[in-house]
Design brief:
The protein is an alpha/beta fold. It has helices spanning about 10-15, 40-55, 65-75, 90-100, 115-125, 140-150, 170-180, 215-220, 230-240, 250-260, 265-285, 310-315, 345-360, and strands at about 30, 85, 105-110, 125-130, 155-160, 185-190, 210-215, 225-230, 290, 300-305, 320, 325, 335-340. Helix 7 (about 170-180) links the parallel strand 5 and strand 6. Helix 3 (about 65-75) packs parallel to helix 10 and helix 6 (about 140-150) runs parallel beside helix 7 (about 170-180). The site of pyridoxal-5'-phosphate has 13 residues, from helix 4.
């Protein structure tokens, strides 16, 4: 913390925060961040590099990303009546949304959930309310409705599928929440490529519903592009807070190219979905674990006999990096989250895990 009087320059909530920590993954098999493990086929790569040659990087980017928006609409089946807001990752969309709110606004989300909702709300000095999920990681509808009634949140975030639990909440419960809240409901579909359900088809049925998506989990995490789809009059307000040129030219050109040649991405996500079933079955066959169902590209599991901290550290000594959630406590006590990688990476993870559970049992 800066010494006085410089510390007085910062809001107390900023001084009390910690920066978002990203683990150093060098030399590890990296299964901690929900990345697509596959690179691009060579012929696609060659054609992509050709298109980049004509990208005018001496000029500012297209401020509205018109061509990219058209590709996103087509590949995500966005209805014509919905407008789009583009963000430098969906993290930036969350920030734009929350920056546009009144200063005393309340932000609500089920917990455990995606940590950036709380992190960004806090950094902006907004009230944040987390409503616990049930022990099965399902929405606690009565608790949600009570919190909506008492807290009058301006925004509710619902990740569908949820991170870090991996499950899809009951869709009827989500609809009840959308209908009951006077504020905005953002259904965060970061894991849409791995799920068969979506609220995109509900756009237009509720005046307060917006759907947020990203290309990160699809396989383009390095490009930083997310978008929000919803009623034009809401998007128009949010667009005033967005910085001009927030989506750089290389990202616009590359995401556009990737979506227009999207068959290879569809094949990769299909391979990841098949591997998810392989890994889930293998985890279920290991004694001493509770494995949670997943509609995403990761699996959450709980260690029942050995502390998760110990398993996590042991995996690291074997060169495997996953995510340890047990520090978050509550419903996530002794929980670990593994991202689905390539088949050989998954097998390396499964044998390392088997070994770490055995060593601990000796
Ligand atoms: C990964 C993730 C995001 C962030 O995506 P970016 O577009 O990479 O910023 C948003 N929401 C959820 C639930 C996520 O898991």
């Amino acid at each position: 913390m800066p010494t006085q009087p410089l510390a007085n320059l910062f809001r107390p909530e900023v001084l009390s925060m910690s920066a978002y920590h990203v683990a150093d993954a060098s030399n590890f098999i990296k299964l901690d961040a929900m990345e697509n493990p596959y690179s691009w086929p060579e012929d696609i790569q060659d054609r992509w590099l050709e298109t980049l040659k004509t990208c005018p990087i001496n000029r500012y980017p297209d401020p509205t990303g018109r061509s990219l928006c058209a590709s996103l609409r087509r590949s995500n089946a966005i209805p014509d009546h919905a407008e789009l807001l583009l963000g430098n990752g969906s993290d930036e969309i969350i920030q734009i949304l929350l920056m546009a709110l009144a200063g005393d606004a309340t932000v609500l989300a089920p917990e455990p959930g995606f940590v950036m909702y709380k992190q960004i709300a806090r950094s902006l000095g907004l009230n944040y309310v987390g409503v616990p999920l049930t022990a099965e990681f399902e929405l606690d509808l009565p608790a949600m409705l009570q919190a909506i009634d008492q807290q009058r949140p301006s925004v509710i975030f619902i990740a569908y599928p949820n991170n870090p639990t991996g499950n899809l909440f009951n869709a009827e419960a989500v609809k009840t929440i959308i209908a009951a809240t006077p504020g905005l409901v953002i259904v965060d579909e970061a894991y849409a490529p791995f799920a068969d359900c979506s609220f995109v088809g509900e756009l237009g049925h509720y005046p307060n519903l917006l759907v947020m998506r990203t290309v990160s989990k699809l396989g383009l995490a390095g490009l930083r592009l997310g978008f929000l789809a919803g009623p034009a009059e809401l998007i128009a307000e949010l667009d005033k807070v967005r910085l001009p040129y927030n989506i750089n030219s290389l990202t616009q050109a590359t995401v556009g190219f990737a979506l227009e040649n999207g068959d290879f991405l569809a094949r990769q996500t299909q391979a990841i979905r098949e591997e998810r079933n392989v890994v889930a079955a293998a985890l279920q066959a290991l004694p001493g674990l509770t494995v949670y169902p997943s509609a995403a590209n990761f699996i959450l599991f709980r260690t029942e006999q050995v502390p998760a901290d110990q398993v996590f550290t042991n995996l690291k000594t074997q060169g495997i990096l996953i995510k340890n959630l047990s520090g978050q406590g509550g419903l996530l006590g002794d929980c670990l989250r593994v991202t689905i990688g390539k088949p050989d990476e998954n097998q390396a993870f499964l044998s390392a895990l088997t070994a770490s559970l055995k060593t601990a049992g000796d």
